[in-house]
Amino acid sequence: MMRMERQGKMLDLVYDTPAPKVFSGAKHDWEVVVGMEIHAQITSNSKLFSGASARFGAEPNASVAFGDAAMPGILPVLNEYCIEQAVRTGLGLNARINLYSSFDRKNYFYPDLPSGYQISQLYHPLVGEGEVLVELGEGLARHVRIERIHVEQDAGKSIHDMDPHMSFVDLNRTGVALMEIVSKPDMRSPEEAAAYVGKLRLIMRYLGTCDGNMQHGSLRADVNVSVCRPGDYEKFRESGDFSHLGTRCEIKNMNSLRFIQHAVDYEARRQIALLESGETFGQETRLYDPDKGETRSMRSKEDAQDYRYFPDPDLLPLEIEQAWVDEIRAALPELPDAKKARFMADLGLSEYDASVLTAEVESAAYFESVAEGRDGKAAANWVINELFGRLNKDDRRITESPVSPAQLGAIIDLIASGDISGKIAKDLFEIVYTDGGDPAEIVESRGMKQVTDLGALEAAVDRVIAGNPEQVEKARVNPKLAGWFVGQVMKATQGKANPKAVNDLVAEKLGVQE
User: Fold this and answer.
1) How much is the average pLDDT of 99-116?
2) Which residue spans within 196-293 are E strands per DSSP?
3) Is residue 426 packed enough to be buried (19+ CB in 10 Å), middle (13-18) or exposed (0-12)?
4) 452 pLDDT tier (thresholds 50, 70, 90)
5) Looking only at Cα atoms, what is the longest distance across the chain?
6) 393 pLDDT more than 90
7) Which stretches does DSSP call E strand in 7-140?
8) pLDDT, tens only, 313-329
9) What radius of gyration, in Å, describes the C-alpha atoms of the chain?
10) Positive or negative CA dihedral for 381, 383, 384, 387?
């Protein structure tokens, strides 16, 4: 059970833990175990140790300081804002903030790493253990434990497809600040692996610490996959020692939730097939080929000793004060789980509707603006069904909506006041979506106001009844047929008649119960 408290109100959200996915091999049943290393680019104007721009999309090698290019004699200067962003992320993931941390050099050679090492944190990371609640449908969720978050600098980018005989190097990303978020191996299905990355992305977007743009490389995942026989995972989880829980393979640089799900599924089945045929395989790093839907070997998997870590001699240990951490905590925005609980408790939304509306920070902000001072359920219905439906049809994001929150709120107000019916409102929404304008003025200028004058409505009902005597007799025998008369009146008034008033008049005139 997860309990959320806000301003003295309690809301109990009870979740069951989903069963692990079972893969049926030719000989045995198997289960998959997934751990994750997420590389999230910290939202910051400049890089981790230099003043060069961290903006995406600059001309190749246009955002490179002397230190990024490993020019001799240039010392790194730590960007305090990047540390603040990492602390904010740790707090958002309910993690322990270490007041003492330090930087280490991770040594390896690659052309897009000019210094021959990456400044990272191995022995003393900035953020310790935390936890993320990953929802997997109504009533199902898994708590995924965070092992650590460390701050490090990114490498550059090698480009191999510009010339048939040589490669090029773009150092713009070199030195960009990253958070590496390392999970415990707690995910038990391909769907959970994708959902976990999606939830982390959502939390960081709410926090403003990473934009989560996977296409631009702002969020990348290294996915560790192993398989075991049913029941083995629980035994190792109790001890906390997963070293004997099957040989794991790492799928590198995943940048799509859909591909993560497919890659885990393929890799689990590949390992099962090898194990059941009696073959052994070693720990290795693999790549996922989305065109073929399969993973392929990249290199043998390195361990910490392969990188020859040692403390960075150019950087003093990082010591922060608890008071500073407390200030950051006090300024945290409302996060998606808390916002979802508030929407359910204060606005009476279902768990499904609240989940949909909090799935993107922009969607939640749009809905809150529409719902302010209005019926929450009505606002949710219009945002989810009408607005989202229309945007999806046009392949538009909420930030590209032609209908502003004020305009949609005005349409809801016109329904609530009785000026327009629900049917007219949908026509009005389409006009505003396509042409813009003030909804109230459109209703007035186009004569779209709902007919509420009882005299006019009664006359319309009388005309329909007088013109259809056979239907009258049928309706008196079967009262359910009275709805036909309501439809005819609505048609005759071009949908402008007040539906409830018409229903009442038809029932009265025919002498049937509603």
Assistant:
1) 93
2) 219-228, 249-254, 284-289
3) middle
4) low
5) 99
6) yes
7) 9-13, 22-24, 29-41, 100-101, 104-107, 117-120, 130-135
8) 999 999 999 999 999 99
9) 30
10) positive
Query: How is residue 74 written in tokens?
Result: 């240039």
Task: Specify the DSSP element, H or E, that contains 298.
Answer: strand 294-300
CA distance 411 to 414: 5
pLDDT digits 0-9 by tens, 119-177: 999 999 999 999 999 999 878 999 999 999 999 999 998 888 888 889 899 999 999 99
Using the predicted structure, report yes or no on whether residue 514 has a pLDDT greater than 60: no
d(CA 168, CA 175): 18
Q: Answer whether 144's CB lies under 8 Å from 184's CB.
A: yes
Task: Tokens 């330090």: give the residue.
Answer: 102
- Burial level of 489, CB count in 10 A (0-12/13-18/19+)? buried
What is the pLDDT confidence band of residue 8, given thresholds at 50, 70 and 90? very low
Place of tokens 């001072």: 373
Tell me the one-letter amino acid at 241: D
With a CB cutoff of 8 Å and minimum separation 6, the contacts of 105 are 117, 118, 119, 120, 309, 310, 311, 312
Residue with tokens 């290795």: 284
Q: What is the model's pTM? A: 0.86
CB 173 within 8 A of CB 156: yes
Check if the beta carbon of residue 354 is closer than 8 Å to that of residue 222. no
The phi, psi pair for 194, rounded to 5°, reads: -65, -40
Is residue 476 scored above 60 in pLDDT?
yes
